[in-house]
Protein: N-acetyltransferase domain-containing protein
Amino acid sequence: MLPVIEYLLSYSVPAGLERQALSALTLNPDHRWHERMDHALFVVTAQHEGSRVGVGIVHNAVTAPTQAPRPLELGGMFVHPAYRRLGIRQHMAESRLTYALSMGGTPITVIAHHNQTSWNYYGRSARWTPECEYLSDVTGRPMTIWVSTESPWHRTGRGLVPLVPAQPNTALPHYTQVHRPPLGPGQDNAVPA
Structure:
């Protein structure tokens, strides 16, 4: 039998024990991770039986050299390895994108070229398009900024009518999903989704 995955939505900066629990999902909760958390506008957390198994953040601490006005970065998404390929990433990505669009910002995400999983996801999605490439000041690695094709900035720049006007404070639905493989030995460390 497959377990129930709950999705919790928060519109405030995670603090205290909640921040510690969310930080534990990452391999390296470094300065940049905490900077994102300090500027979080929206956090979606995936839980199974009270344990956090995934997190995704929308923040406005954008350091990437984007030309997009009012960029809202969909950054810091992690899913525990034992919970991958269950659609958790898709639910969190949809929630974050819906929130950013509803706030009237320009949703962006920044993907390192070595992150093949993310490249596969964004590269095959019609909802995202590359804006530009640059070298990270922190790692020196090539990065690409992806911008939402549904954002008013992207659409008007191509002569298209915006899809949906901004709807600040839109309440997003809670999602429930049922399934997860059992944990196996050595599957207790999260890596970027």
Observations:
- Residues 134 and 143 are 5 Å apart (CA to CA).
